[in-house]
Amino acid sequence: MSRTELRPFTAADLAACATLLADRHRRHRVAQPLLSARFEDAAAALAELTTAYETPDASGAVAYRAGGPVGFVLGAPKPSPLWGPNIWVEAAGMATTDPEVMRDLYALAATRWVDEGRTAHYAVVPAHDAELVQAWFRLGFGQQHAHAIRPAARSATVTPAGLSVRRATRADIPLLAQLDLELPLHQGQSPTFSAGPMGTLEEAVAEWTADIDNPGYATFVAEADGQVIGSAIGCALEKSSAHLSLARPEHAGFLGFAAVLPHARGVGAGRALGTAVIDWAVSAGFDSVVTDWRVTNLLSSRAWPKLGFTDTFLRLHRLIRF
Ligand SMILES: CC(C)(COP(=O)(O)OP(=O)(O)OC[C@H]1O[C@@H](n2cnc3c(N)ncnc32)[C@H](O)[C@@H]1OP(=O)(O)O)[C@@H](O)C(=O)NCCC(=O)NCCS
C-alpha cells in the first residue's frame, strides 16, 4: 500500500473532499434511503463542506495516498457554553475510503484543537458504517446521542383502554408547562447527567401563553381517566436547530418533544403520543419523521426505536482531561 500523507485541511482540499463526502452519502443512502438524495451530488456536497470550512475557527486534516484524497476530518467550535470548550465535527465533516485513516486524521486535527484549549470533542458519524464508528470508539469516543428517522406512514397502534390523545388547547397550558420541565428533570438524573438548562415553571407558562396558537407546531396531550399526563410536539424539521446539512432530509416532519408524567410512564402514553405526531406528519404531507435522543436516556432510547425510528447518525463524544 502506498504511504498515507497527512496535512492540515485547506481550501485547496474542498473539491476533492466533496467527492469523498458525496460517495459517503451514496453509501449511507443504501442503508438509509430516507436521507436526502441531493447530497449524492458532489456539487451539493461541496456547498455543505464549504459551509463547514467557513465556520469561524474551523480546522481539520486531510489524507492523501498516491496523490489522491482518501479521507478528511473538519471540525469547528459551537459558541454555546453548554458544550464546554468544544469542537464539533458535524454531518458534513468527515469521510474516508479507509476507516483506519480516520484515526490518523483525528490525531493530526486534535493536536490543534487541544492546543487551542478545545478539549470537549463531538463527532456526528453515519450510523450504518460500523467500521468508521469503531475507528472513533478506538479514539476514546463513546456514543452520546442518536439521530433517527422513520417513514411518515400510519401504524396500527391500539391506544390502551383509559388512555386518549387529543390536540392541546389553551386550557392545557399549566400541564404543558409542567411537562416541559419533565425532560430536563429526567435527563439531569443518572445515567444521563445532562447539563441542559432547567427553566422555571413561570417561564414555561409564559412561552406557552405566547405560542400555543402557533400554526407551525402541532401539540398533543395524552389523558388518562380525563387527566392530562403527557404531551408531544410535531413540526417541520426545518424548525429544529439540529439535524443540519447531510442529516436534514427534505419534506421531513420532526418529533421535537415528548414527555409523560413519571407516575404514568411505561403503560403506552408515550407510544400513543409519538403515534399521534407520526399520523399528523402523514396528514401534513411529510415523507418521513425525524427525531433524536440521548442514548443514556433509558426511556426515550427505548421508546422511539419501538415506534420504528432507526439510526441515521450517531453523535460521539470524547472529553479530554489533563
Ligand atoms: C420517553 C417517554 C415520553 C415515553 O413515554 P412512556 O409512556 O414512558 O412510553 P410507553 O409506555 O408508551 O413505551 C413506549 C415503548 O417503549 C417500550 N419501553 C418502555 N419502557 C421500557 C423498558 N424499560 N424496557 C424496554 N422497553 C421499554 C415500551 O414497551 C413501548 O414499546 P411497545 O409499545 O412496543 O411495547 C417517557 O418515558 C418520558 O416522559 N420520559 C422522560 C422525558 C423524555 O425522555 N422525553 C423524551 C425526550 S427525547
UniProtKB/TrEMBL annotation:
<dbReference type="GO" id="GO:0016747">
    <property type="term" value="F:acyltransferase activity, transferring groups other than amino-acyl groups"/>
</dbReference>
<dbReference type="InterPro" id="IPR000182">
    <property type="entry name" value="GNAT_dom"/>
</dbReference>
<dbReference type="Pfam" id="PF00583">
    <property type="entry name" value="Acetyltransf_1"/>
</dbReference>
<dbReference type="InterPro" id="IPR050832">
    <property type="entry name" value="Bact_Acetyltransf"/>
</dbReference>
<keyword id="KW-0808">Transferase</keyword>
<feature type="domain" description="N-acetyltransferase">
    <location>
        <begin position="163"/>
        <end position="322"/>
    </location>
</feature>
<dbReference type="InterPro" id="IPR016181">
    <property type="entry name" value="Acyl_CoA_acyltransferase"/>
</dbReference>
<keyword id="KW-0012">Acyltransferase</keyword>
<protein>
    <recommendedName>
        <fullName>N-acetyltransferase domain-containing protein</fullName>
    </recommendedName>
</protein>
